[in-house]
Amino acid sequence: AAPALMNAFELISTSQGLNLGTLFEK
Amino acid sequence: MGCFPSRARRQYPGYEDPVVLASQTAFSVSEVEALFELFKSISSSVVDDGLINKEEFQLALFKNRKKENLFANRIFDLFDVKQKGVIDFGDFVRALNVFHPNAPQEDKVDFSFKLYDLDGTGFIERKEVKQMLIALLYESEMRLSDETVELILDKTFLEADVNQDGKIDKTEWANFVSRNPSLLKIMTLPYLRDITTTFPSFVFNSEVDDIAT
């Protein structure tokens, strides 16, 4: 969706800093 | 063997018995021991003191210690429940437990609320959401005009802030995420189901007699 149509939290949740999955990548 | 940690494990301040941690979380004893392998690796990446500091956390997250990130800082602060500026093994396991696929939804809602309530007032305020949006734009190099940011905020608060008092309380947040379940996607790490396969070396370092527990 275009950013203006997304809610703020949908956008924020795409931050790399919130993707803890990378902790498990060796 | 048994419940007495070896000298090697006593070097880890805040080390807790895997059997006890497993009894308090969704993890099995083997999974807690596998998480200890991950913890050892992160906590020794900059300073080998058995604790994870902010720099080590960011290095593990971004593979780059210089990257300052509002959201990574916020997650670190929430993992650091005793507010010591470092994460010990017990903190690490208990915080990751919230991200387990089997963790209660309510815990995920609570954690995500705290994550976005940057100043800890018990409300997610518009100014906090704007600060996070600006941090995201900076991080992603996405370009949005201030007008568009305000439109996004208007739309979000229209949907989430049901009583229209300019801030989102815990109940409004719980209702909002139940209508928008994708917002909780970041709160579940499927990796946690396969942690013993990802870190099989825990078997060689196990101090528990029956690791199949």
From TrEMBL, chain B:
Q: Which InterPro entries match?
A: CNBL1-10, EF-hand-dom_pair, EF_Hand_1_Ca_BS, EF_hand_dom
SMART domains on file: EFh
Key word Calcium present in the record?
A: yes
Q: Where is the EF-hand domain?
A: 67-102, 104-139, 148-183
Give the signal peptide range. Answer: none
Any one Gene Ontology MF annotation carried by this entry is:
kinase binding
Entry keyword annotation includes Lyase:
no
Question: What's one Pfam family here?
Answer: EF-hand_8
One GO cellular component term:
membrane
> What subcellular compartments does it reside in?
Membrane
Question: In Gene Ontology terms, what is a biological process of this protein?
Answer: calcium-mediated signaling
| Cited CDD domains | EFh
Q: Which UniProt keywords apply?
A: Calcium, Membrane, Metal-binding, Repeat
The entry assigns this protein to a family as follows:
Belongs to the calcineurin regulatory subunit family.
**Function of the protein:** Acts as a calcium sensor. CBL proteins interact with CIPK serine-threonine protein kinases. Binding of a CBL protein to the regulatory NAF domain of a CIPK protein lead to the activation of the kinase in a calcium-dependent manner.
What do we know about how this protein assembles, alone or with others?
A: Homodimer. Interacts with CIPK.
The name under which this protein is listed is Calcineurin B-like protein
- What gene name does this entry carry? LOC103710773
